[in-house]
TrEMBL record:
Catalytic activity entry: gibberellin A1 + 2-oxoglutarate + O2 = gibberellin A8 + succinate + CO2
Annotated ranges, domain Fe2OG dioxygenase: 169-285
Keyword Oxidoreductase among record annotations: yes
InterPro entries: DIOX_N, IPNS-like_FE2OG_OXY, IPNS-like_sf, Iron_ascorbate_oxido_reductase, Oxoglu/Fe-dep_dioxygenase_dom
Protein name: gibberellin 2beta-dioxygenase
Family recorded in the similarity comment: Belongs to the iron/ascorbate-dependent oxidoreductase family. GA2OX subfamily.
UniProt GO MF annotations: gibberellin 2-beta-dioxygenase activity; metal ion binding
E.C. designation(s): 1.14.11.13
Gene Ontology terms describing biological process: gibberellin metabolic process
Amino acid sequence: MVVLSTSPVCNQTACNAVGIPVIDLSRPRPDVSRIIVEACKEFGFFKVINHGVSKTLMEQMENTAGEFFSLPAQEKEKAGPPTPLGYGVRNIGFNGDVGELEYLLLHANPSFIHHKAKVISKEPSFFSYVVNEYVGAARHLSCEILDMLAEGLKLRNTKAFSTLLSDLESDSLLRINHYPPWNKNNNLSLNGNKCGSTRIGFGEHSDPQIISVLRSNDVEGLQILMSDPGGNSVWAPVAPDPDAFFINVGDLLQAMTNGRLLSVRHRAMANSHEARQSIIFFGAPPLHSLISPLPDMVSPADPRKYNPFTWSEYKKTMYQLRLSHSRLDLFQADEPQENNSLD
Ligand code: OGA
Ligand code: NI
């Protein structure tokens, strides 16, 4: 059953309360599969509860991330400039995008984490233990969700998505974002409306990978782009829930499902008075994987919408574009020519 939760109405233009699907993973598997497919088709986004990840691990990861951000700037800079992995402040990517945040972007590979831990933390073995456990849990949850998605889509190969993430060469990442309050003296704006005192923390974009698993502290900020009943695009605030995970469909899942599932556009706002922290696992295939609409998703009535490409090619294209670019459009298959004659 999809339980609808509403977020408080935000009185900025084009920012509305909308229901976000909440999926209880302890329900019978066929029901969950069906609801996940519905949520990914309609929103490309949903929240999961009863997900099986221990609260202790979620808190340990939260505290470990918080400890890193509380270090002096020169200590944090030892984690390296964001190229793209490393520690970044305000600058996102290589093309001039900026936001009100600092972040740490890590490869999810255990040996990468193990090596980086030495320059990130004064307790490297505890840091790599916590981050590796968390990444393991987020990867496992992603694979479970992807398998149920494949079952719901009636794919013959129900591991078609998850094998890409469980591959030893998977290019999955872990991003930890910290949005410090940009004006600690400003409790709330005059009319008490929190939305009046926000700035762009992480600008509008879709996640390029297959699936993203986000967890944040109890501070609002995440918004997803949705259509209202009149067909207009609106930014829908997502109420924070530190006990839950929020799942995004990424560009590659949209491509592999031939456009059936939507890669959701989203952004994060930073507010003037409270720090927000979010931790996102991005589930990705190996760099050399060839991404293409799956045969089960293509038929004469539903011709192939995207050309095949490798994840490495997709990343290269992405690095040349602004954050908000709808980059998957560049990989759309050409319209079939109705008339090929040369006369
Ligand atoms: C991201 C992202 C949102 C957030 O890092 O891709 O969408 O809440 N972050 O930090
Ligand atoms: Ni994102």
